[in-house]
UniProtKB/TrEMBL annotation:
Organism whose genome encodes this protein: Streptomyces violaceus
Protein name: Transferase
Amino acid sequence: MFLRVRSQDIVKEARLGNRRSPDIDSRPRPHLVRLADAGAEVVTPYFTKPYDNLTLDVGRRKHSVRPHCTVSGATWTESAPGTLALEARIDVQGIAAEDLVVRAHRDGRTVELDAFQTVTMGAGGRVGLRVDLARALAAGTLHRGDWRLSVALRVPGAGEVPVACDRALPAARIRRRGLSAYARPLDGENCLTLRVGIVHPVAGVRRRLRRVLRRRRA
């Protein structure tokens, strides 16, 4: 960023930024900027080293969005069986709920779960995401297999943020078109990966009988 001053046909151009108030936060902070064509781009103001001049990084040439985003705290919601709740911190200024999408990856295939998600924006960059996996299964968007979850910003090339693996997350039973399915987190994964499968009626009855027999013996 430069300031150009013209006086009496004399032009003086000087860089901006190296003299500023100590109250200014000098950390690079990405901003989501809306474009005229309904698109968006990430712009990150920062101060250069060693000269400390103000510069704009347009399009993440030097600054990635990912260090400013984390997704953790996966839990199953009690009020809506089969719905996964995620806690995130998205430190990108100017984002709205429609800018975020939960994605599931399996065997080179990626599906977007925006049709089954709700997003709540909080203060300080806190974001809550709820994904109705039961509806996604019923609609055929998800099917049996191991699905790796991530959250993405709807900006081309912005990358994705993996959902942190929570080893305390239990398996969940999901009702799917009259049949029972399950979603179980896999151990040993770097990010949250759910194994989705169908509970066959006969196998379910056998498990319930075994539980009943164990209780009687106890």
